[in-house]
Amino acid sequence: xxxxxxxxxxxxxxxxxxxxxxxxxxxxxxxxxxxxxxxxxxxxxxxxxxxxxxxxxxxxxxxxxxxxxxxxxxxxxxxxxxxxxxxxxxxxxxxxxxxxxxxxxxxxxxxxxxxxxxxxxxxxxxxxxxxxxxxxxxxxxxxxxxxxxxxxxxxxxxxxxxxxxxxxxxxxxxxxxxxxxxxxxxxxxxxxxxxxxxxxxxxxxxxxxxxxxxxxxxxxxxxxxxxxxxxxxxxxxxxxxxxxxxxxxxxxxxxxxxxxxxxxxxxxxxxxxxxxxxxxxxxxxxxxxxxx
Amino acid sequence: xxxxxxxxxxxxxxxxxxxxxxxxxxxxxxxxxxxxxxxxxxxxxxxxxxxxxxxxxxxxxxxxxxxxxxxxxxxxxxxxxxxxxxxxxxxxxxxxxxxxxxxxxxxxxxxxxxxxxxxxxxxxxxxxxxxxxxxxxxxxxxxxxxxxxxxxxxxxxxxxxxxxxxxxxxxxxxxxxxxxxxxxxxxxxxxxxxxxxxxxxxxxxxxxxxxxxxxxxxxxxxxxxxxxxxxxxxxxxxxxxxxxxxxxxxxxxxxxxxxxxxxxxxxxxxxxxxxxxxxxxxxxxxxxxxxxxxxxxxxxxxxxxxxxxxxxxxxxxxxxxxxxxxxxxxxxxxxxxxxxxxxxxxxxxxxxxxxxxxxxxxxxxxxxxxxxxxxxxxxxxxxxxxxxxxxxxxxxxxxxxxxxxxxxxxxxxxxxxxxxxxxxxxxxxxxxxxxxxxxxxxxxxxxxxxxxxxxxxxxxxxxxxxxxxxxxxxxxxxxxxxxxxxxxxxxxxxxxxxxxxxxxxxxxxxxxxxxxxxxxxxxxx
Lengths: 292, 525
What we know:
The complex is a heterodimer of chains A (about 290) and B (about 525).
Chain A: H1 2-47, H2 67-75, H3 78-109, H4 115-125, H5 130-144, H6 151-161, H7 168-176, H8 179-187, H9 192-200, H10 205-221, H11 224-230, H12 239-246, H13 252-276, H14 278-291
Helix pairs in contact in A: 1-13, 2-13, 3-6, 3-7, 3-10, 6-11, 7-14, 8-9, 10-14
Chain B: H1 6-11, H2 14-64, H3 67-71, H4 78-82, H5 86-105, H6 110-117, E1 132-135, E2 144-147, H7 152-188, H8 196-203, H9 208-234, H10 256-259, H11 269-303, H12 310-322, H13 325-335, H14 341-348, H15 354-358, H16 368-397, H17 400-408, H18 413-428, H19 430-441, H20 444-450, E3 462-463, E4 466-467, H21 474-483, H22 490-514, H23 521-524
Helix pairs in contact in B: 5-7, 6-7, 9-22, 11-16, 11-19, 12-16, 13-20, 21-22
């Protein structure tokens, strides 16, 4: 009887302590939510401010209005920059997916002479800072007319040409598909091309979508290479480089609220695409981390 | 040191096993270098034998071959054409023609540039005649016009291409000679030779890997291998704003740029690099591990039994990944600027006096210590969502009965974490930690968009025409050294690039030798 009672007490105690720890966790999670969303809330609110204003402690606009958005589309070439970036995003998504898939599929499922050597070579090449190669590429592209106003085209080539070296995540995916599928198809007389096209590709939807998503996101986030090739030419700008110049010292007070409006215009479509495909992103991230 | 056998090794605790691996690695280094000599010798022997075999085979081919095979020693693919392999023959012939045109026919072609590039000959220029002002023949008043000379960058690039072309030429020559002989042998046996159609078919089957790899390899060769070799060569030149290769040719300086790094005295280049590199390593360490552990904590919290709205918490964090990073980085950097919202709020709440804000004493980005701390904290804000996502996936894979039995044995939740969760995570995510560490070493965006490398470090001063800041990484330094063509010092950027490669490769070598989960690729599948 007494035993039973202590049991009950300890159970109650456990429940109480679990309640306490859960409460703490909820507090932490709410704090995280606030901390993580606060900057974005700030951007959205300040973008609706009427007129330019410098930064102050009051995020809430003094007067609501769409002035910044109107200014963005009438006074600047925002539409052009946005179009440049979107164009780069779409092209990079397609080309990069092609390069990565062909490379990772070959390394994962075909065995040929020099395969290990090729992988080691790419591993070593990957240890050089990628920016270094850009110095020569800029010179050559400059002579070919692929910088400044034509920088979007040059940038697409830079993003995609060597993208085969980033095969790791997608190879990890192909490694998990059972080899017996290939063997069965080969016994039935399929060529290697048919195995690739008819057997493996239909199974690879998640990794294809993951690659497309990554390729699409890359130009939106790239700053270093873009700035280097664009060289402040207004016709070749992508959004990142332009918006950074708005926040430089002399221009800050005039453009701060417009920056917020542009940020909203950029973030909304990209976030929508991302959230719609986030399932595949999560699969890629978790799979890729485990596989290395 | 004493080597343990398997049984003894398994008895060690996780931590001791790690230390054991670490010691094993370092104690094997002298041994490794000792064996290196032997390995190189073995490699040389293999090469010599291979070349000898090739040469005898080529000799035999020439002696035994009929006139068509003999002629293909000079004319690429002639044998193939003779035996009816039209497609291969034409391709070989086209390659030879391209080679000759590139090397000798075009004015200032490959051979010419290879000669005047003087590759790695210290003291000589890259190119021969620099451009200069010459009297204008059309002018009556003795005006001068600019006459183009050699352009060093172009000359060096063409010379490099010529070198690659020569290697490819020898390889292709050998290949087509061999193929001609095989054709001859097969015909002598009365068998049928592969036609062009068969070749095309095999590209979709036996040779499928060639078709899949070709576009990627061409891209990598042109946009990574070639520029990397080129930029490594630049480290041995004086390519900068004054020697831009156009108005003034640049020249080979040998190891001068590297020996400057040995200057570790006050204000010396070596000292400056030491400082930047040490902050770079500190940054990468904290950025990686703070994200890793805190992200894991968040994942564990969200995954805990009894926590509701799991999907909501996760979506909040995923959303911050979705928004392009430069937007959040730029906005957050302004939040913490000297007149940003955080400072204003602190002012409104009377934490800091107005005078401090006016005097700009408050600026977190202007103080080296606060700037560094702020960078790491903001990086946590950026990085936790990624780690959370990754950790969530892995945590779900840990068998639940492990925790069940641990609980029955009376393990507390802290013990469960340190004995089950952490070892499992570390084991599985070893490669991730390495890639993320390397990524952070080169994390341009976070540093450049947040602090821009500042505040300036007066004890270092100017290096390579750039003001070095307290929070500059090697990569931001490299960027600054090359961004402005009026002050750029490309050779310095190139030296830094090579240093970074050394750091990364040594680190990777150590980690790959210690972490168990990276060893065998086929184990995963």
